[in-house]
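Lecture 7 notes. Example A: sequence first, then its structure tokens.
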Amino acid sequence: MYIDSSGGDVNAAIGIGRLIRAAWMHTAIGNYVLRGRNEFVAEREHLPGRCMSAATLIYLGGKLRYFNADAQFGVHQFSFRNPSPDDLGRSQILSAKIALYVVEMEVSPEFLELSSSVLSNQIKLVDEVILRRLKVVTGGETDVTWSVQGRAGGLYVRGERDSLYGHHKVMLHYHKGSGFLFHAVIEAQGRERELTTFPLVEIVVNGEDNRIDISQRALRTSVGIYVNVMCNLSQVEARMLAFSNSFGVQVRASNEAPVFLGIAAMSTEGGKEQLASFFETLCK
């Protein structure tokens, strides 16, 4: 979804942003025009654009959010077009809606502080460095989000990330009676057959420095748009993941294959304490 807008109605912008998120679309600033045509192909040209005021809320709806060097992103206080004596109460309700939406879109609350610092009759252009720090701009990959979950008699620590290659999860499980398990959820993007039939399956640890071959014990199942990969882990292998800097899973046709399907190793930076505590508690 390409955005080139000076703004508009806040409630409508939030509604559009949620529709974009529900459709798993990405957002960028600018627009494309057709510049000439031959018999078979119409050339496209990207034009710089602006994303101002309420349009910034539409932009936040993207699963991935891109920013071109020539784009303009402008913020200010959100206000009503037709002021009334009831504005104070309405503004509090609107502020709460915007704050809830910003959190839903996994953007730093500092984004609201930045917007609120600029009068509604002014506009502040924000550069890409600040927008990346506030998690407004993601580029082609989001940060990994780590959490501890419980389900079906087991516990697990889950890392989750969106990228150009899909929505992916890696998990370190512990289930009473089964011990430690590895579980990956891979958005297949039409490659279900390869992900479930290629013979080589490896957990990659610390980038690709260490590999655990799980080809003979991996259970692979296709569910909707996802392929699940699961296997039992020894305590030594579980410890390796729990204290790693990153881990993921690669599915390849052979050891010599330079290209893999699966999940590039996810950074554990935001989940180190959770992973270590999880492992040490369950090993006592």
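Example B, a different protein, same format:
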Amino acid sequence: MASLMASNVVLANTLQDDDLKHAVHTIDKEIETLEILKNNLDVSLSQALDLLQNTKGRVIVTGMGKSGHIARKMAATFSSTGTVSFFVHPGEASHGDLGMIADDDVIIAISYSGESKELSDILMYAKRRNIPLIAITRNPESALGKNSTLVLKLPDNGEACPLGLAPTSSTTATIVLGDVLAVDLMERKGFSAADFRQRHPGGKLGAILCRVADVMHKGDEMPLLNENALMQEALIVMSEKMLGCVGIVDDAGNLEGIITDGDLRRWMSPNLITEKVANVMTKNPKVIGPEALIVDAVNVMNNTGRGITNLFVVEGKKPVGVIHIHDCLKAGVA
């Protein structure tokens, strides 16, 4: 029995070693393919970006099989980063979906071999209507390459698959090339975090990209007092607004300081209610702008040394709102 157990351990260790060896080989092969892709980028990339950026229509992405799956991902990435795009299935295109492609569009057609017969109707349709077509293929001399406006060449470096058959390295290179196009277009268009949030309002990502102005308390919700007021008034305002603070402004409406629950504890005495708020307030409080992201507000609150739970939101020196750490929690950021 002991001998059998020892044999099983040896077998398990051998299998683990083989698994790691195969994993490293696969990763190395795909890295090698990406290095070839990187080192062979040329002017055709800029030409493709010119077509994509200047189109008055949409970017139509198409491909068959694994290339089709990548095309769907590519179209989704374009759409979420400021380039209107959608996927057209080559088979469905031959049965009416060619009508989805307009003369002002640009087509990206993906085929590693460049000989996918299912793409032929799309190629001919683009030719007849003078619709620019960008081919992504390893073979510029293929049917796809010869019938395209320009070719973005994939590395001809074989597959990581031990049979050399299953699309592995080639699909990785295609996905990366699609990301290159999307990111370069973002750079060209000056696509901002605010633009990104408009397309990603849901989930954690939407929360991270939410602005302070979207959740701040403003108008009558703001707890504010003039610097000449007494602490008795401050206690009343803090109780009414229930935000744990009151902002202190001068006669011009500029924010001069803040009084928080912590300040009350530090100043607790029988004479507190008769003190002027200007004597109790923390001067030059931390503030933030309304266009800042909520995640930035959280960072300011957490990195003040002792931590704070409120930030006044200002334009210039005038308060336009106040944000509490609980508002950040509700937004899903803090």
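Note on Example B: Residues 2-39 form the longest helix (38 residues). The chain has a mean pLDDT of 87.
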